[in-house]
Amino acid sequence: AEYMGNIMNSNKKLFITVGTTEFEELIKTLDTLEIYKIFAKNGYDNITMQIGKGTYEPQNFKEASVNVNFFRFKPMIDEEIRESDLIISHCGAGTLLDCLRAKKKIIAVVNLSLIHI
Q: Are the beta carbons of 19 and 49 closer than 8 angstroms?
């Protein structure tokens, strides 16, 4: 592990996925300098976001001390799941099962905009 000031930099990877729909609230909430600082403080300095159909694209990482990249879709996200230390995901059953099978730490977030009451 490397150290940056008093922040441990352990090169952990974080993968954020919204699935095949959109989850603007999740991406916007996580795309803040404050959140990036929290990720970095906890050793997550490589962040990949799968942003789906949403129109919002991450932009606030440029001043952060983390590496962020994003994409809309890929045919498979198995590699991102396998290489990540933590996944923040929508509550899609397929994604959650893939993460569990890969024995990964998951934070599942409900996309309330998809619940039609």
A: no
Record the pTM.
Answer: 0.88
Tell me what pLDDT residue 76 has: 94
CB 99 within 8 A of CB 107: no
The CA distance from 66 to 56, in Å, is 19
Cα 112–chain centre separation: 18
Encoded amino acid at 105, one letter: K
Q: Express each pLDDT in 66-113 by its tens digit.
A: 999 999 999 999 999 999 999 999 999 999 999 999 999 999 999 988
Question: Exposed, middle or buried, 59 (CB in 10 Å: 0-12/13-18/19+)?
Answer: exposed
* CB contact at 8 A, 25 and 52: no
Tokens encoding 107: 């934070």
